[in-house]
User: What shape does this take?
Amino acid sequence: MKLSRAEYKEIVRWTERLRPTRQCMKMLKDRFPDHSQSTLLSIFSLEYQKRTKRTISRHHAPDVVESYYQRYLSEAKAHPSAPVLLELALEVDLSPALMARVILDRFLQDLEGEMPSKTVLNSMLKEPSLIPDLILAQNIQQCTVNDCCYGPLVDCIKHAVGQEHEVLLRDKLKERNLSFLDETQLRAMGYDKTPDIILEVPVAVEGHIIHWIESKASFGDDHSHRNYLNEQFWSYWNRFGPGLVIYWYGFIGELDCQRDRGILLKDCFPTDIVTLCHASQDELPSQEPK
Assistant: This one.
């Protein structure tokens, strides 16, 4: 779904009052029923990550971490079955999964007498049953399950969704009998930085020649698209020629302004692909019957 910048900004303004919980996402969907849940979640996640980058440093200040930890210990002792950590995260506007990391890190420092390794910390966040404190384990799990922007569960879902859309793209290309190389094949050939698909025979989409296709299971906003252009898309253009980017969850329509320079944006697999074979047939002169 392509959104005008005005439509996008209206959604962004609404997200500013929300926290990254699945309940809040339902509120966002109720407010914008004409947009898909996936599009709204992607927009909200991008905006919340920007907000987090601006404020995360104050949550990691030693005195702040200590105040969070002591408050957790006090409230968890008084209300052992309550979602203390989740409520604290929402109160101070910190991602529940990031709050869980902060508190678990502080807990392990007390337990081990030194800074825990990232390996131990990450393994316990992924599998809270490894935490040697049942109440903390329950709180960590509540934070992970309820966070829609950060944490091991979200990372797993994003990875799976990304792979799902890459498979969808390959299936669509096979349906059209288009010959291509995927990222795995290209890496095996020695390419270090490649798009998801290289077409062995270029095609035309809406009058533009396409040599490669990149799949993005996300919404294309100004910030992410600018980063992708600088870090990926122009590099692909320099190496392989003009290409197509599919933002499966939509993008700001005004961003599709690089077509003449060789980068086309779509929000779905194109239906008007013209192959070399079709183009050649169209160019053949008509013959009068003898």
